[in-house]
Amino acid sequence: MKFIKISLISVFVCSIFAGIFYPIVSNKNKLESAFKKALFDIQQNSIKNFEWKEADWQNYQNNQIKRLPIFTKEYFYNCVENALKDLHDNHSVLIKKHKLKNLTIKSNVPAERFSIKVEGGIGVINFPTLITEVDQQGAILSEDWVIEVHKEIERIASQVTKGWIIDLTQNSGGNMFPMLAALSYFYNEPNLGGFSSCIKNKLEETLVSFDGESFKFNNEPAFTYKIKFKTNQNKLPVIVLIGKNTASSAEFVALALKRQKHITLAGQESQGVATGNEVMPLPHDLGNYMLTGAYFLDTNNQPLLEEKVSPAITLDNENMISGAKQLVQEGYLR
Question: I need a surface site. Which of 53, 100, 289, 290 has the fewest CB within 10 A?
Fold first, then answer.
């Protein structure tokens, strides 16, 4: 009888131990496998493939694996965040939220307000940072917002007699496609630029064009609007202002505008994150992260490895708008 009691107690204790220990081990295995998968995806797709060789990646992987074991989600996120920081690409970032709700706007609601006005015969367009959904085509295109911008440009166009200023100095990026589409009034050239990625030492180039209706990647349709926006409407001087806060997709927009006739970049060097990001999923529905995977192409279709976009004309930070107005007044045409 005593032996039976001891056995029952032992079974009871083991059951309790298994009930506590097994979920911990299971969770540990899930988190560690998710972390290793993230490391694999990072190595396959990171912009660091432009400069890192196999030995560099091996060293990187070894340093990350030292973070194991991983028992909690919070520590898992810490590991992913540090792994992204260790890339030193200044652009990759962890996103814990599954749906990015805190970073998005609804596709049928106008995004951040822009401003378009006329001052002394000069049209002044100010574009803010533009954040939208990244997994829904309607939100990617933000058609209502683009229509609103075009209407405002066309509304004041007859009053603009001297030229235009497009102010990107406070634009830190976001969704570039609505911004590009909204400025098609100024495009005489459909080729807007592109991206250069290096995946496992294989160079891949993606050229982006816009004909007023469809964005194309390497001449293949990618996103299409329901209506066709006007292109090639401008014959006046245009000064595009950039500065230290001009970043990410705003740098792409600046480069796209630089390709067009009558347009000159002025101001200060951009922030220097002229790189393309991709939303990468973490396994087991643990969220997402933004991984920097490509450099923007300069106007010669070469990877912008220096990252920063430089203006043709340097203007004082404190007087950029007045400096741009003076250039327009002088009829500055590139």
Answer: 53
Q: Based on the fold, state whether residues 253 and 313 are members of the same structural domain.
A: yes
Instruction: Extract the tokens encoding 136.
Output: 């829904």
Q: Which of 46, 64, 88 is the last residue of a domain?
A: 88
Nearest-angstrom CA–CA distance, 50 and 304: 12
Q: What pLDDT digit, counting tens, does each position of 25-79 carry? A: 668 899 999 999 999 999 999 999 998 999 999 999 999 999 999 999 999 999 9
Helices (H), the chain: 2-45, 54-65, 73-85, 137-141, 143-156, 176-182, 249-258, 320-329
Nearest of 175, 187, 193, 180 to residue 277 by alpha carbon: 175
Kind plus residue range of the DSSP H or E element containing 220:
strand 220-224
Q: By C-alpha distance, which of 202, 211, 205, 119 is closest to 167?
A: 119
Same domain (yes/no): 167, 39: no
pLDDT for 278:
86
Question: Among 134, 130, 226, which Cα is nearest to 170's?
Answer: 130
Spatial CA neighbour of 250 closest among 154, 150, 173: 173
- Is 10 inside any structural domain? no
Average pLDDT in the chain:
86
What is the domain extent for residue 42?
A: 25-88
**Domain finish residue from 40, 56, 88:** 88
* CATH code at position 117: 3.90.226.10
Number of domains in the chain: 2
Strands 238-242 and 263-267 turn out to be: parallel
Query: Cα separation of 168 and 250, whole Å?
Result: 7
